[in-house]
Specification:
The complex is a heterodimer.
Chain A (H helix, E strand, L loop, with lengths): L5 H4 L1 H12 L4 E4 H8 L3 H13 L3 E8 L2 E8 L1 H19 L2
Antiparallel strand pairs in A: 1-3, 2-3
Chain B lengths: L4 H47 L2 H29 E3 L6 H22 L4 H23 L5 H16 L4 H23 L1
Helix pairs in contact in B: 1-2, 1-4, 1-6, 2-3, 2-4, 3-4, 4-5, 5-6
The chains are: A alpha+beta, B mainly alpha.
Chain lengths: 97, 189
């Protein structure tokens, strides 16, 4: 049976994972773009991304695009799996309402 | 960890909201625009071929193709920065350059086979644009390549089976179809 994931359940991390799993398997999103999408501050998003990266749910890729530093974020296969399990657990709880 | 059904519902609503917002953000950041730009180019280009004298129609096509290529390059440059494929780390400039090179190669192919009829001229442009469409679909993976395959098939049907209505066929079904698909992605996706 699917279980709730405490790391993912925090509202900003939940929305972050929802945004990242919406992208394709090999796609990654620019940090600034993700920040605008989630309407959060740099520091706030950075802290939550760090937590998700520590858990192995996301991958942070720092690279240069047109000689400018860019940070790209993507969901890992493990992150996609636990997110799907978390959503399934939420749906089970809702059905038991 | 345990939560109430109300909290679960709120979390699911938050997830659905951000999924919709992400899809819309990706589509409105550029993918739909390629369709609308080339839909407009096709619509006016083919109407020009239908109603303008042959020579003027050809120059009109060349002019709007160049405009379409430049606009696509600008869109590609903007688009590539926000979301990218980690396995194919093309920068926006590379995507833009691809479109410009495609236009140059299309012009070179037309030059090689010149002189050609108006319908052959139009079909060559269609085939090159479709190559670009499908390449973008495969590289950026934001819209499927089936749309490009369907339009190519429609073009070939019009070219071989409906030669008398080919330009109108392509203006309405090809150009109009691309515009509608682009608007659909922008507003509904």
């Amino acid at each position: 049976m699917a279980e709730l994931n405490e790391i993912i359940h925090q509202p900003i991390r939940l929305r972050t994972m929802a945004a990242l799993v919406t992208l394709g398997a090999n796609e990654e999103v620019d940090f600034s773009y993700l920040r605008k999408l989630l309407t959060v501050t740099d520091g706030n998003l950075g802290a939550h991304l760090h937590k998700l990266e520590e858990a192995g749910y996301i991958k942070i890729n720092k690279s240069f695009v047109d000689r400018k530093p860019h940070t790209y974020i993507s969901a890992t296969p493990a992150g996609r799996k636990v997110f799907a399990e978390h959503v399934a657990a939420l749906e089970v709880i809702l059905k038991g309402k | 960890m345990s939560i109430s059904p109300t909290e679960a519902e709120e979390a699911l609503v938050a997830i659905q909201t951000i999924v919709k917002k992400t899809r819309r953000a990706i589509s409105t950041s550029g993918a739909y625009a390629f369709l609308i730009v080339w839909g407009i180019v096709w619509l006016f280009g083919f109407l020009g071929s239908q109603f303008f004298p042959s020579e003027i129609g050809r120059y009109f096509w060349m002019g709007i193709d160049i405009i379409g290529g430049v606009i696509s390059a600008v869109i590609g440059a903007r688009f590539g920065r926000n979301v990218r494929n980690s396995k194919i780390t093309n920068s926006g400039k590379q995507i833009g350059l691809f479109w410009l090179l495609l236009i140059v190669y299309c012009a070179a192919a037309i030059w090689v086979v010149w002189p050609i009829g108006n319908k052959q001229f139009a079909m060559l442009i269609i085939l090159f644009v479709m190559i670009g469409w499908m390449a973008m679909g495969l590289i950026l993976s934001f819209y499927p390549i089936w749309g490009g395959l369907i339009l190519t098939a429609l073009a070939l049907v019009g070219y071989f089976l409906l030669p008398g209505f080919f330009y109108l066929w392509m203006a309405i079904l090809g150009g109009g179809g691309m515009i509608i698909m682009g608007l659909y992605i922008r507003n509904k996706w």
